[in-house]
Design goal:
By secondary structure, the chain is of the alpha/beta class. Helices cover 38% and strands 12% of the residues. It has 17 helices and 17 strands. The protein has a five-stranded mixed β-sheet, covered by helices on one side. Helix 2 (68-77) links the parallel strand 1 and strand 2 (83-87). Helix 7 (195-208) packs parallel to helix 9 (250-265) and helix 16 packs antiparallel against helix 17. The longest helix has 18 residues, at 431-448.
């Protein structure tokens, strides 16, 4: 999910990050969705009517490069299942490749993949819509209720529309406060517990250890790290196809001012953590970094090559006076079973295995959305010995602290932030100066997709 300002730079960063870890689902694809599908969603009272089934028929699976090895592992373990694997970008960072292709298949009346993975947590908003939605309502006899009930509380919310569940969640990407414990102890600093303490420490770091960083604001997912945690109503659903967008709300402006202060001091970077320059020159100077659970292995271990025993994670921060310390979410992919599939049994079995099996999820790079697999995953993280402290308690806590006021929409906050805010920051403007422009960009995109904005 990384992004940089010029399109050419974004493409280069994507290639760089893929080479580093193959985390295609975590990388940038330019621009957000296009045409709005028919705004009709099947009601939970409408019975799902599968197409004529053909037992044993081949299923086509679309997945990103990171998920393909898992599909291949499933195929090896189930040699009787015929699978055609198609590798695509995975709709990372707000891309709309899957939606565009599905619209073409809708017009042609054929070609839909039986199974599709999307790294864009917003894709359920269109896949569940239309007179004949692309996604099958998996709660209607496609996936067992016991499996659906095994996911973390709220994990399937981005998949649930009008009482039906249209996808299974691959992983969670809850944010925490990452920090370099070795450096913190060396500098004599305590881990902050509030955003005010975070700002004060950032100012202190800028003065006492110039060049060291406590955060970044140049990543495409920065809104989901900072503004989501601040409970900023950048996109809060108020009804069907209705959203509230108010970046002048005090819970937006307080975070903008905090980041502006630290950017000006030099302890918050305007670069993206996946850029070649950042990796080479600044990775070793990251003291703290609010960010998703996948930062641990994906960013610090595999990309930054931070030595074992240095990195730890702390609880999400809160502003003084807030009743609760909320956090945001950066990612958490979705698996769809096509309503057009002629082999729902095989399609559903693959999707269930990919999201729930210890064999795959227990060793995956990201925190599983399925609770049992998450227990295995955390135990395996501890066994690696990479972290300075056990991250399990913090991850479990932060998974329950994701603020519900940041809603899944058909437009991508990452794409809008990348095209609107990051260029402004790099031209010398502050976040505070850019809030109105940012709001206009969100509003215009939402309206273009049929939303009523208030």
């Amino acid at each position: 999910m990384n992004d940089d300002v010029p399109v050419s730079s974004r493409r280069q960063l994507r290639r760089t990050a893929v080479a580093v870890l193959g985390t295609v689902s975590l990388l940038v694809l330019a621009a957000c969705g296009s045409a709005d599908p028919t705004p009709t969603t099947a009601s939970s009272t409408d019975a799902f009517k599968p197409v004529a089934q053909k037992e044993g028929s081949e299923i086509t699976v679309w997945a990103d490069a990171t998920r393909v090895p898992g599909v291949q592992a499933y195929q090896k373990a189930h040699p009787n299942v015929k699978i055609k694997v198609v590798t695509y970008g995975g709709d990372a960072n707000g891309a709309n490749d899957l939606q565009t292709k599905v619209q073409l298949f809708d017009r042609a009346g054929s070609g839909w993949p039986d199974v599709a993975f999307s790294a864009n947590v917003n894709d359920g908003t269109w896949a569940s819509q239309g007179k004949s939605p692309y996604a099958a309502p998996v709660n209607q006899g496609v996936v067992s209720q016991s499996t659906l009930q095994g996911f973390a509380d709220g994990a399937l919310n981005p998949c649930t529309f009008n009482g039906n569940t249209y996808c299974l969640r691959n992983d969670l990407a809850q944010n925490a406060l990452w920090y370099n414990k070795s450096l913190m102890e060396k500098f004599g600093y305590s881990v902050p517990t509030t955003w005010e303490e975070y700002q004060a420490l950032g100012e202190k770091v800028a003065k006492e250890h110039p060049g060291y960083l406590v955060g970044t604001a140049g990543d495409a997912w920065s809104p989901e790290v900072y503004f989501w945690a601040s409970q900023c109503p950048a996109s809060t659903a108020t009804g069907a196809k209705k959203v509230k967008v108010d970046l002048q709300d005090a819970k937006c402006t307080r975070m903008a001012k905090l980041l502006d202060t630290l950017i000006a001091k030099g302890s918050v970077s305007k670069d993206t953590v996946f850029s070649a320059g950042f990796i080479k020159n600044q990775a070793s100077k990251v003291l703290m970094l609010p960010g998703p659970s996948w930062f641990g292995q994906v960013l610090f271990n595999s990309t930054f090559k931070t030595p074992k025993g240095q990195i730890a994670a702390a609880s999400p921060l809160s502003f003084e006076g807030d009743a609760k310390n909320y956090t945001g979410n950066v990612g958490g992919g979705l698996w769809f079973v096509s309503s057009h599939s002629k082999n729902l049994q095989a399609s559903a079995d693959l999707v269930t295995w990919m999201t729930t099996s210890d064999a795959y999820q227990g060793t995956a790079g990201t925190y599983p959305a399925y609770k049992k697999a998450a227990v295995t995953w955390l135990a395996n993280q501890k066994k690696t010995g990479y972290f300075a402290e056990d991250v399990g308690p913090v991850f479990k806590e932060s998974a329950e602290l994701i603020w519900p006021g940041w809603s899944a929409t058909q437009y991508s906050q990452e794409a809008i932030y990348s095209s609107t805010v990051i260029p402004a920051l790099n031209s010398g403007k502050t976040l505070t100066d850019t809030l109105d422009t940012w709001q206009t960009a969100i509003t215009n995109k939402a309206k273009s997709l049929g939303y009523t904005v208030n």
